[in-house]
Structure formats: C-alpha cells, structure tokens
Amino acid sequence: MNNFVRLLPTTIDFIVHRSFSITAPLYDLQKVSRVHVVDNSKLALDGNVYKRMPRIIHCYKRNDNLTRTRLTAGLGDKVLLAIKGQMKKAIIVGCKQRVRKPNVPQFDSNNVVLIDDDGNPVGTRILAPIPAFFRTRGDLAKIAAIATAFV
C-alpha cells in the first residue's frame, strides 16, 4: 500500500505539468485529406470508384498561424490531388468543419472540382451545392457559372 501512495504524487505531477503537446482542431483541409470530386468530368467519375479515394497531396495556400510545414486549405483554395495515379489541380468547394465558422456553410463531405492549369473547370457541370460567395469572387466565377445549386 505504501508503494502505491508514493507513486500517486508523481502521476498527478505528470498530468498537471503536461510533457506532451495538444494540437488544436483544424478548421480546414490538410495534406492526405480524402475528398470527393463533384464535377462530371471523366476522371472524376472514374476516380470516385477507383480503389483509392482522391487525396490532397499539396495545398497552395500557406497558413501563417501554423508553424513548420503544415499547410491547410479552406473553401475556394487551390490544392493538388492524387487521383487514379495522376496529379491534378482542384478547387475546394465544400469542407467539413470540426468547429463552425460564422457565415460559412458547413458541408457533410469534403468536395472539390477539378481544374486545368489555366483555372478553367474540367467538367461541364457541378453535381453538389457550392457556397454562394463563389459568385462574387472573380477567380471562382467560372466555377460558379457551371454550378447547379448554391448554399
């Protein structure tokens, strides 16, 4: 019994003075996040039923709040996908969020739309609703033009 009492204070000290780090919940997507491609391009339709889901392998936006090399991307940001063994650029049009942000729609899945090198969408129609603020942003106007529903 005395041995147990001697160990108890050191255990409490360890819990009070944490020697491990706790990461804050992410608001956006990061590398290796799985996504759904929601346009009607041939690669998107084949990639969603391929043996591996499309994954983000690079985010083109650096978040200044996070240190080191972690990159995150949110709604309207450009990412690089690995889909069917190919690397393709995409724009995030839907993002699950652990913590709700004000005036930003919350989605059930992480959705992206494939684009080419010039920023034009590869497909001719977007099959999922996209945020309404895409209409006002000039660089995303082409994606808003082929959308069928807005949130």
TrEMBL record:
Q: Does the keyword Cell membrane apply?
A: no
Q: Pfam families, alphabetically? A: Ribosomal_L14 (PF00238)
InterPro entries, A to Z: Ribosomal_uL14, Ribosomal_uL14_sf
Q: Which domain of life is it from?
A: Eukaryota
Entry's SMART domains? Ribosomal_L14
Signal peptide interval? none
An example GO CC term for this entry is: ribonucleoprotein complex
Any one Gene Ontology biological process term? translation
Q: What family classification does the UniProt entry report for this protein?
A: Belongs to the universal ribosomal protein uL14 family.
Q: What is this protein called?
A: Large ribosomal subunit protein uL14m
Organism annotation: Adineta ricciae
Its ancestry begins with:
Eukaryota, Metazoa, Spiralia, Gnathifera, Rotifera
